[in-house]
Amino acid sequence: MADIKIKLTKSLIGSKDDQIATAHSLGLRKIGNITVQPDNAQTQGKIAKIAHLVTIVEE
Questions:
Q1: Burial of residue 49 (number of CB atoms within 10 Å: 0-12, 13-18, 19+)
Q2: How far is residue 57's CA from residue 18's CA, in Å, rounded to a whole number?
Q3: What is the pTM of this model?
Q4: pLDDT tens-digit map of 14-49
Q5: Rounded to whole angstroms, how far apart are CA atoms 38 and 42?
Q6: Of 51, 22, 26, 24, which Cα lies nearest the Cα of 36?
Q7: Nearest 5°: phi and psi at 33?
Q8: 29-46 burial, b for 16+ CB within 10 Å, e for fewer?
Q9: Do 59 and 8 contact (CB within 8 A), yes or no?
C-alpha cells in the first residue's frame, strides 16, 4: 500500500469546525505542516473534505 504526503497550504482560521477537526485528525495544525498518510478510502475522504486547504506533495 502506498503512502501520500499532504501539506496544509491555507489557514484553518474561518473554516468550519468539522473541517478543522479533519485537518487535525490528519496531523495538520499549522500552515506548511506535512504529514504522510496511507493511501486508503478513509484518507481520500478526509482530503476531499478539506481539498481547498491542502495540496498533495509529489515525491
A1: middle
A2: 23
A3: 0.92
A4: 999 999 999 999 999 999 999 999 999 999 999 999
A5: 9
A6: 26
A7: -65, 140
A8: eeeeeebebeeeeebeeb
A9: no
Three cell numbers, residue 13: 482560521
Residues 6 or more apart in contact with residue 12 via CB below 8 angstroms: 19, 20, 23, 29, 53
Handedness of CA 46, 56, 32, 34 (dihedral sign): positive
Question: How many CB atoms neighbour CB 14 within 10 A?
Answer: 8
What's the one-letter identity of residue 45?
Answer: G
Task: Give residue 42's identity as a one-letter amino acid code.
Answer: Q
Q: Which residue has the cell 473541517?
A: 19
DSSP designation for 21? H
